[in-house]
Design brief:
290 residues, 13 helices, 76% helix
């Protein structure tokens, strides 16, 4: 075989390779180009869908803020975005409006639908806590406890507070106090602490125990205030001699009081003249005689 092929042989070899692999190469190139174009079109469509969904949600919020009818917009979101976060937020808004009107059954339905759509764990915990509150209003105590049983740290305080409320509603006061105390151990704000404390103080058994402790402490403080002067001046009040302990009886009759009067020294009302006064009187007498 020659080391170099002639032009005719090279052309024949290229034709043979084209006949064997040419169609495959063309298909690969077409698929690659088509895939790139399709991906770009999909991304554009996805962005357009998201933008349209965002526009619908903004329109829903605006209409709701203006107290307009949102039924049509809600229906469009449900049909076009059935499993999106837009629908989740819409259902949460609807649940709030129903709760404001004390329609707890409708609020429960909306929250259950939102919980089924939610994908993020934080949103699940938030919706579960609200659902538990609604179930508590409907006196579904077991379901309320189940709703908040797996709530994470982000919503641990409202979950514990609801658990304490359920135990208090059942009459399980010791369990309720224990749950409230656990909630108070968390890093609470002022109003959260005040709210949980007021609920705990509203429990009769805890309030009575607290009043007893308060009265005992106040009695102890009063005793300390009473005993304090005696302890500070006790050394002055201690008798130094047995004679200090004797009590002198009072004298009832005037006769018994006279000897005490005789012991007092008698004093003249008129004072004796001094030497200077005598000299002055003699001088005056001599001047009169003259």
């Amino acid at each position: 075989m020659a080391d170099f092929l002639t032009d005719e042989e090279q052309a024949e070899r290229l034709q043979k390779m084209w006949r064997d692999y040419g169609l495959t190469v063309l298909i690969g190139i077409a698929v690659g180009i088509g895939g790139i174009v399709a991906w770009n079109l999909f991304q554009d469509h996805r962005a357009e869908v998201k933008q349209r969904g965002a526009d619908l949600f903004v329109e829903y919020e605006t209409t709701r803020g203006l107290l307009g009818s949102t039924d049509e917009i809600k229906q469009q979101i449900e049909e076009q975005y059935p499993n999106s976060s837009y629908l989740m937020f819409v259902l949460m808004y609807e649940a709030k409006d129903a709760a404001d009107e004390d329609d707890w059954e409708l609020a429960k339905t909306h929250l259950e639908g939102a919980l089924a759509i939610a994908k993020d764990q934080t949103y699940k915990d938030m919706i579960s806590t609200r659902l538990g509150r609604v179930q508590f209003q409907l006196n579904l105590l077991d379901e309320a406890l189940e709703s908040v049983s797996d709530v994470g740290d982000a919503y641990r305080l409202p979950a514990l507070e609801l658990t304490g409320d359920v135990h208090r509603a059942r009459g399980e006061l010791d369990e309720a106090v224990a749950i409230y105390e656990t909630a108070l151990e968390l890093d609470l704000g002022y109003y959260d602490n005040l709210r949980v404390t007021s609920k705990m103080n509203s429990i009769p058994s805890f309030a009575s125990d607290d009043e007893e402790l308060t009265s005992e402490s106040s009695d102890a403080q009063e005793l300390e205030l009473i005993d304090e002067p005696e302890s500070s001046t006790g050394s002055e009040l201690e008798p130094t001699d047995e004679s200090d302990l004797e009590i002198t009886p009072e004298l009832d009759s005037t006769d018994e009081q006279e000897p005490a009067a005789e012991l007092e020294p008698e004093t003249d009302t008129e004072s004796e003249p001094t030497d200077e006064e005598e000299t002055e009187s003699q001088t005056e007498t001599e001047s009169d005689e003259t």
